[in-house]
Amino acid sequence: MRAGEDARAALCVLCGLPAAGKSTLARALSLRLRRERRWAVGVVAYDDVMPEAFPEEEAAGPLAPSWKALRRELLGCLEGFLRALLHRAPLSAPSGGTGALWGAFTASLQAQGLLRPAPAPEGQAHLLPTPAAAAGPLLLILDDNFYYRSMRLEVYRLARRYSLGFCQLFLDCPLETCLQRNGRRPGALPADTIHLMQGKMEEPNPQKNAWELNSLTVRSATCSPEASPELTGLLLAALENPVTYVEDNVEQKEADRAVCSSSTLHQADQALRRIVSQTMKEAKDACPRPPDLKLLAAALNQLRAGLLRDLRLGGRAGPCSPAPGVPDAVARFQDEKDSLVRKYLSEQH
Fold first, then answer.
1. Which of the four CATH numbers 3.40.50.300, 3.30.450.40, 3.40.50.2000, 3.40.109.30 does domain 9-248 have?
2. What percentage of the chain has pLDDT greater than the value 90?
3. Are the C-beta atoms of 46 and 62 separated by less than 8 Å?
4. What is the pTM of this model?
């Protein structure tokens, strides 16, 4: 499944607080895309596939060990389906998994018409991707809270491994609305759990993370897929622009960016320290009062710290050589340093 071929596929991550409307949106979106665009659509609802993880694991704290293991296993099931789809081969359960989760996962895909039983030569039934799923385009919607960015990054890596499209849809629903909806559910989560999850929610940040560029935030208590050209555009962009390992090696880019940022800050810090040292040496030669020297030194170091902080938060680190931002920081320091010297070392000194 590559761009330009008949068979295209994408993974869409739905994220947001419990009761934000993710499942309602996923079901409505699936029906609309199947009816209007003839897409093969599958919704993988984490609450349905691994219900034993809720609410006990959530109440005990996010990312409890057994819950993390279930999430990894579910990603393994999803990868197995994608592999079978690519190779037009029978689907097989991942090794070391739980039969209950695998059964729930395959039953969900069968109910949505993405898997069909096929008799094997020895008489045992196997599961095969349906022709509709194999012909595409195929959209798999992953419905979960996904409040940690690392959770969504795992899905991105899976999409990249098989050159699939990837996108994120974040439902930004008010906390009070989520609490009210949750309270009306039969198996309601503890309110403290939702409060805790809100505090840990990491929204998509396309400005900071290149792999999150194909993201859409819906800042509303309700979302209507029938009248959302932005949402349709998000999905089409994901299908038409599959991510690849060579073009989107996100781990290496993140590591390179961190190294370059550290190098830039180090160079700027060293340059500013040299200027502070030289300025203080010249100030001592002017024989000012010791209290004035202390005030000047404190002001210069405060200025240095502020410029370094601006450089760090500005996200200006790019290629390691030359380090952008360092000349600007030095120039700003030189300009403001002169006014500080005049302030603390008056003409009478």
1. 3.40.50.300
2. 34
3. no
4. 0.66
